[in-house]
Every structure is written in structure tokens, then in C-alpha cells.
Amino acid sequence: MAAAQDRKDSPTLVVRLPGVLVDLFPGSARQVELQAATVDEMVDELDRRWPGMRGRICDTRPAIRKHMNIFVDGERATLATRLRPGMEVFVLTAISGG
Amino acid sequence: MGKRILLLIGTKKGLFIAEGDEGRRSWALRGPYCSTWPIHHAIGDAATGAIHAAGGNEWFGPAVWRSEDLGESWTHSSEGLAYGQGEEPVSTVWSLASGHGGLYAGVQPAGLFHSRDGGRTWRHLAGLRDHPSRPEWNPGGAGLILHSLVPHPDDANRIWVGISAAGVFASDDGGTHWEPRNRGTRADFFPDDQKYPEFGQCVHCLVMAAGSNGRLYQQNHCGMYRSDDGGRTWESIENGLPSSFGFPAAAHPRDPETLFLLPLNGDSAGRFMPDGKAAVWRTRDGGASWQDLREGLPQEDAYFGVLRQAMTTDVMEPAGVYFGTGSGSVFASADEGDSWTEIARHLPTISSVETMVVEHDS
Asked: Which of A60, A80, A92, B146 has its CA 20 to 30 A from that of B210?
């Protein structure tokens, strides 16, 4: 109940997702508005809307995947990074492949 | 009703499907599927008609993809494909097997998962990683991977796995308890007095012979072997082969005496076709003697290798045999290896080839 109240009082964020991630989840969008107090909660909210998305962004240590980056107001974030009202969050794929 | 043969070709950049007629004379290629993720292994589930494709993506981690319309549309899931918090996470799925109403998945780092809902959710069969030998498992060149999955066709409690480089393990109780089954297989990379350990061998590919009589074959980093007692003891069958090194092995669908191999020139000699001349080697007598099969295969400048899951047979009569190369070619034989045709080329590096037979109306 307390967690639900916290989420209700959390700031509204703009989250931008990479196209290659959006392509994996029909109905998802490149730009998402949601409420979350931390990056961890933000990923949970994305997963609630599109089940399975958490597993694509995070591993089970738990941590943001090695070849994924999340930037909050221009700074590289961890799951523990706190979020403030109006922040813009970028979820990005790192250079990878071959 | 006629039949079509689907070749499921897992590559570094997605799954491809080559579709052939019943005579296996004409083939059409389609794909890539699975968003061009690296696909290590794909199988067709005869019970449901679904195709399952296993892989992992550097960005997004492991997943098993599923298609219920022969590849036209796909979903993916990794729900439950996870170890506990703090453990090294599952990075990719290496192998799949279906049987007794379920699906098995072998992953990296080595572990075994099971699904009862067609791959939508997975449950860790923790008994394998609870084996006391696990702290001493060492990775092979491709990592610590569970690449071979052999459920017994008639007994749901019996399953064998191959792990590089921990060796062969077997369970007789559905995956709760496991024991190593490597007696008689060599580990040339250990000191002279330790070349036949209880575990730690570099098994490359483990397959079961037709007939449910407990016969297994394995291509190992260090030799080729047959077991007639469910893996409890192994006998070398490498005499007559051009080398003791290779990756895949493919069993005949009906004859337990017939096996197909693709020996390479050696683990420190380039790991390509011996003398640059491609050949599949076939035994008709359980490994007592071998015949090289070359008709239609390149006999000069063939410096390719074939990975551990990249050769298979079909269930037709006579049996078809197929393999895919590291350089992206697929070769097919409709006559049990006597003659070969290149049916696809210029694909990404091929990790696996499996067959699926489907019925069609016309």
C-alpha cells in the first residue's frame, strides 16, 4: 500500500526507448511517460506495461545489462539512481556486435 | 497429403528456414527471423507443430523464440530463464530438446531449464548445478555451455546432457540427481596420470542412437566414442577416421549402427576440412569401420569448419543428412550421405541445423 502511494506521488518522467527494443514488444513506443522514484522502479513499470521488457534491459544480478545504458539528465545511471520530476531518461543500446 | 521438409538453420544473425519438397530436390530459403539475434539452436516440436529457436543477444540477453505458424510470426520469452540474485546471469541459450510434453533448454553458464507451457515460462532444474563437481567445471573455447540435450524417447525420467568442458552427466529421476558418465573418454589436455578423470572431459556433441537401447555416441575434443550402457562406459571408435577431432555427430533415424561425422584436421591444425577436401564420414557398423562420403562436396580449397549442432538427419526413407558450415553454406544429401548438393550459401556463420517434417494439402 505504501509502495503504491509512493508511486502515485512519484514524478512524471519522459522515458525514451531504443527502436530495436521497441520492435521486440508490439504496442510499445519510443517515448513513454510514467511515474517512478528510481530507475529500478522505472524498469518495473515498463515491465508492467510490456511484460518481459525488464529482462531485456536488466540481468538477474540484478543490474542494467552490460551492453545497455540508461542516462538520466545526461549522466549514466544505475538501478539505484533516484529520479526527480521532469527528468528525461534515455535507454540506449551500447556499441556491440560483429 | 504430401510432406515438406523444413531445415531450421540457426546462424549468428538470425534463424533461416530452407523449405524442401518431399524428394528433397528443390529448396527455397526464407528469413532471417528472430530479429537477427544470434540463434544457437532451433527445433521443431512434432507434438505441437511449433518452432522454438534459442539464442542470446549482446544487448538483451537470453531468449527462446516461438513460432506457431512455421516461422511467419514470432514471440520471445526468458521468463524463468534465470539463476538466483548475485549469481552470474544466464547470458544465452545454447540448446533445446522436446519430449514428454515439455521443452528443455541448456544455457550458458551451464545449467538446465524445463518448460511445460511451450517455452512461455521456464523452471530451473537446479539439481545439475547442485552437483558437487560444479565448482571444478571449466569453460571450453565457447564458454561454459550446456550444448547437448538428450531426453530418453520413452522414459521421461532419463536425460543426458553434454557440458563443455565438464563432460557428460545423466539423471534417472527427471533432473533431480545427476552423475557424471565419462568413463573411458580421454582428456588429453590434463597431465599424463589424469587423462581419464571422472568429469572434466571436453565433450563436443552427444547423440542417442535409434532404438531406445541405451546406445549413445559422442564426438569429443579428444576422440570419438560409443556407449552401449547409457554412458556408464565408453569405447573409442576413432580407428579409421582421418582425425580424432571434430564437433558434430548425427545419428541415423532408424538404424542404431549408422552414424555420420565431420572430422576436422585437428584441434591445433586450423580446425578445417582435412587437406582442404570436404568429407562426411559414415559408419554402418557402430563405429567398427568408416567410409568417407565426398560426391558433391568441394574437394579443393575447402577450409571451412562445421560446429557442434550443425549436422543432422531427417526421418524420411532413405534418410536425409544435412550440415551447415562456418562459412555459411548448407549441404544436403537425400540418400544417406552418398551424394550431396549445396542448397544455400553466403549465410552468416551457421550454428545449428535441424529438420522438421510438415504435412501439406497440395
From this structure: B146
Rounded Cα distance, B35 and B261, in Å = 32
Which of A48, A56, A60, A64 is best to mutate for the B interface (most B CBs within 10 A)?
Answer: A60
Confidence of residue A1 (pLDDT cuts 50, 70, 90): very low
Residue B32 C-alpha cell reads as 532471417
DSSP H or E stretch at residue A69: strand A68-72
Tell me which chain A residues have a C-beta less than 8 angstroms from the C-beta of B35: 20, 23-24
Q: Tell me the chain B residues in contact with residue A52 when contact means C-beta distances shorter than 8 Å.
A: 76-79
Query: Which domains are assigned to chain A?
Result: 2-93 (3.10.20.30)
Residues in chain A: 98
Q: d(Cα B58, Cα B37) in Å, to the nearest integer?
A: 9
Residues 58-117 of chain B whose Cβ lies under 8 A from any Cβ of chain A: 58-61, 76-79, 82-87, 89-90
- Domains, chain B, in order of start with CATH, read 2-360 (2.130.10.10)
C-alpha distances out from residue A72 to A20, A69, A76, A78, B255, Å: 20, 10, 6, 10, 62
Distance of CA B24 to the CA centre of its chain: 22
Residue-wise pLDDT tens digits, A7-32: 556 669 999 999 999 999 999 999 99
Q: Helices in chain B by DSSP H: which ranges? A: none
> Are the CB atoms for B252 and B210 separated by under 8 Å?
yes
